[in-house]
Structure formats: structure tokens, C-alpha cells
TrEMBL record:
It comes from Nesterenkonia rhizosphaerae. This is Uncharacterized protein. It comes from the Bacteria.
Amino acid sequence: MTHPYFTERARDVIARAGGNPDNAEALATWAEQAKAEGKDRNAGVLVSQDGALVAETFQTQDEIRASYVTADEARQYSLQGNEVGLAIGQIQRQIGQRLIHVKVWAVTEGASKKARRAADEARVQRATR
């Protein structure tokens, strides 16, 4: 079972992108595994509207940083260029769904919504004393 922290982070990311947070389970599971495996924080995944994980991505560490779909998945979708911006459009046309690019850091770092709400409430309580 996926830890509630990762579920909440994934639901939040999908909701902010205009998607249905109920479709976040695959992303939450991926996030928990990515954290456990120590994946680079700039690695990522393309997620479809229905919550499916479509392709993994990586970011170059050169002077000019860019994200790319992995070579295996670029071949799977017969991509003409695997830079994420180019790949998203091509894959969207093939699967008929919009995609979002989610990096590891977006679903594995930072406070959960619950923790942020508690901190906000504590600040308000201190301010009203």
C-alpha cells in the first residue's frame, strides 16, 4: 500500500494540472518507488488524463538542461525527437489524451497539504493572540 504522503502529493499535482485526483494512484506508487530507489530528483514521468504512466523521462546535466523521454519509450511511440516538449505532442496524438510531465521532486519533496494547513493554522493562532 502506498504511503499517504505520496498519495496526497500525487493527488495535488494532478488536481493542479486540471485532472481528476482520483486518478493519482499510479503516480503515487511511482513516486514512492522513485524515492526508495534514490532516483534523480529531475527524473520524471509523463502521466495521461486517466492517470496512466506513459513514459519515463530524464534530465541532462549539461550546461543547457533539458528533459527527454527514455530511448526505449521513444522507440515504442516512434517519436521524431524525444525532448519532452516534442514528445508530449506526439504521444498525445497517439493515445488521444492530454499529458503532464511530473518530476520526482514534485511528488517526493516538501510538506504535505495537511502539514501546510497545520502550519498556516498555527500562524493564524499566534497572530490572533
